[in-house]
Amino acid sequence: MLLGLYNYWVVVVLMMVGFYIVIAHGNLIKKIVGLSIFQTSVFIFYISMAKVDGGTAPILAEQVSQYSNPLPHVLILTAIVVGIATTALGLALVVRIKEAYGSIEEEEIQNKDNQDC
Amino acid sequence: MAIAFAIVRMKDLLAIAMLLGIYGLLSASFFVAMDAVDVAFTEASVGAGISTLLMLLAISMTGRSEHPSRHKPLLALAVVIVTGSLLIYGTLDMPYFGSAEAPIHQHVAPRYINDSMQEVGMPNIVTSVLASYRAFDTFGEVVVIFTAGMGVLALLSVVGRPEDASKIDSFNNSMHEQHLILRIVTKMLIPFILLFAFYVQFHGDFGPGGGFQAGVIFASAIFLYTMLFGMSTARRVINRSFIEILAASGVLLYGSVGVVSLLNGKKFLDYSVLASDPVAGQHLGILLIELGVGITVASVMVIIFFNFADRRGFTQSKESKDT
Q1: Is the ipTM value over 0.90, yes or no?
Q2: Residue B12 Cα, gap to closest chain A Cα (Å)
Q3: Does B125 share its domain with B265?
Q4: Does B196 reside within a domain?
Q5: CA nearest B257: which of B245, B248, B269?
Q6: Which of B20, B37, B42 to mutate to test the interface with A (most CBs of A within 10 A)?
Q7: Domain residues for B58?
Q8: Does domain A10-49+70-116 have CATH number 3.40.50.170?
Q9: Does residue B64 have a pLDDT over 70?
Q10: What is the pTM for the complete model shown?
């Protein structure tokens, strides 16, 4: 019975992998990669909730009566494109940090800040 | 999932970017299996294409190796395990996978599935929900994309051309002499990529596709051209201010469709006033706002890519001057 919930467990594991990368790694690009894995796990969560057994893609056709839920598809479709735009913004910030500090490791940046003041 | 674990272990950021691309492609195929064809389309072009490219560009500017030290990995692992098991405990109350009685399928979805053919008249329910029922949300998303593009512009734009632009030109030319086959194949492919983008744009009412996917595909054709023929050539084709005006005009087109329906005495983004017949009005409205979305997404992606690439040329020329 409990095996019917496996889609949520996959999502949780992926999400925790992303979370671990974000908190345990000091490299800023690696952190952004972690965030995008976290993000993808949320996409998978929504899309797997939209699935209906025996349903098909939500494009109306004759001879088909059962469709998967179109609403989460719409939400995730826009979220993916917004996600890449915000990831690009994050990467732009990383590039500027690299120019200002000469490093993208969190500890080195903190050391430099401490030396300055 | 295995790829996600590999990403944790790897130190080489270049390999991580490549793995992220594979991960994007895999999740796209997963979305097809889950019946979400439109989403899979977007994920394949964004996750496997553009995000890998942007990661690579950023890595080329920041260096590719990761510092080995991590702060308190055991503490982090403990936090992650506790959070994860709490979340798993939370899933025990969730409806089973694929069950048609789940609450999510009871609320507004039946109306979209049963009535959208009469009300909007489009076979692709995802498009009619995206552009008609929830058009206001989509407007918000487009504005967010536009804002992110402007943010990248503000952070990375190089004021004025770098003075030794001629040096970058010669660097480009020498590099591109070597890729003769790639250049010819790209030249032959680009018209087809652009044509496919337009097909996706205007066929989104009937099959999977729409403004978001078309914009990303269109932008990737321009990326390909830029990578093989150099920034200066691409800049000659696509002017900097022209592309910025395009990004803004896409958002404006979307908003003005809403204002037109307001002025005609209906609600914001109610398309039934655009033509004498409500369904025809819906078609016209969806066509216009999908066009606005497509224009904005394509030009914002191009702005982001150009600014990253410009910045890279700028830092490289600065470094070579320093040494």
Answers
A1: no
A2: 10
A3: yes
A4: yes
A5: B269
A6: B42
A7: 1-66
A8: no
A9: no
A10: 0.82
